[in-house]
Design brief:
87 residues; mainly beta; five-stranded mixed barrel; two-stranded antiparallel ribbon; 7 strands; 44% strand
Length: 87
């Protein structure tokens, strides 16, 4: 079957962890105005609940994923907050 390119670039959450090359897990992805599940393959095992990015479609209902954290949600590290040094 043809790859489903609409899902590539979407993020999702693993509802069944992946086993790396040993087998797929399952990911819930928000796509096409709803949520859909896909078999999820990854290079390394990933735990259930991991947020992932879909990087490739393997055809009907199968995708390749990688761990993902939204950089816009990461707080910048501003150090200890001690600007003037010690007194």
């Amino acid at each position: 079957m043809a790859p489903d390119e609409a899902v590539v670039g979407c993020t999702g959450k693993l509802i069944i962890g992946t086993r790396g090359s040993e087998g797929p897990g399952e990911v819930l992805v928000r796509v096409r105005g709803g949520s859909e599940t896909f078999f999820a393959w990854s290079d390394e095992p990933l735990r259930r609940g991991t947020t992932v990015l879909v990087i490739e479609s393997r055809g009907t209902r199968q995708v390749v994923v990688m761990p993902w954290s939204d950089p816009s949600l990461d707080e910048p590290d501003h150090g200890s907050g001690d600007i003037g040094g010690s007194r």
